[in-house]
Amino acid sequence: MQRFANPGRFMRLSSRVMPWCGAGASIGLAVGLYLALLVAPPDYQQGEAVRIMFVHVPAAWMASFVYGFMALASAVALIWRHPLADIAAQAAAPLGAGFTLLCLVTGSLWGEPMWGTWWVWDARLTSVLVLFFLYVGYMALVNGFDDATRGARAGAVLALVGAVNLPIIKFSVDWWNTLHQPASVFRLGGPTIDTSMLLPLLIMAVAFMLYFAALLMLRMRTAILAGRVRAARLGEVEPVPEPRSRSHAAGSVG
Amino acid sequence: MDALARFLDMGGYARFVWPAYGAAAVVLAGMALQSYRAWRRQHGVWSALEATRSKRR
Lengths: 254, 57
Description:
heterodimer
């Protein structure tokens, strides 16, 4: 990990990896959509409405995964003061919020025809709504300070505390009686979905993951560049040492 | 044509399936667009800063 601590090295590495992630995501989405909409069979109970699964479930997985990533990056930022950790967590947050929103919207569109309701306050749906608010709260908190370091610190603590919600989301369908169905892919005894549906689902999930990786790198590159701009402007105005608050974002230039 | 109409109808679930895929398109494209615009903006600022600096030297 330490070898990637250098923002300059990250800029070089990400400029090479990012296009591959983007290309992989594009191919994955194309193949995944083809299989999901044209090849996968209709469900024997749900009919064609089951096709909502191919966007809903990958979005739901990403919603939790991105939060886990954010919490891990926040822990690294708090413990080791890794110069890229805060940048990574802050770059991931809007993407995670987007995936969570997509999960909620598609879930609602799936719930109405199958359950007869757009929304129900069951444990799974409520805990995912809380996840969305955690993302939004994190972003508001990080940007709510004049001092960027203090904002990052407060946000990192919130991200870590909020991580208790992740096992609640995962096990909510086992712990409580929910209208939402229990796990059917990541469960003991293997998936209960037929391969003809599981394959497009997994391809879409990989595509979403690569899409996230590409955008995460792009956003981190933007943040590093913003730090360099700040550092350069401070150097132009007066030859005083950089204030501590901005030094982490500036990183080592060049 | 009949096959296309049947595909678009989604077994009567068209008003749920297509908005779901539409929402996915909007959210994914929105994330990419916002991220790319922010990068372009920052890149423009950085290039302008570099230009003035090299002029001064």
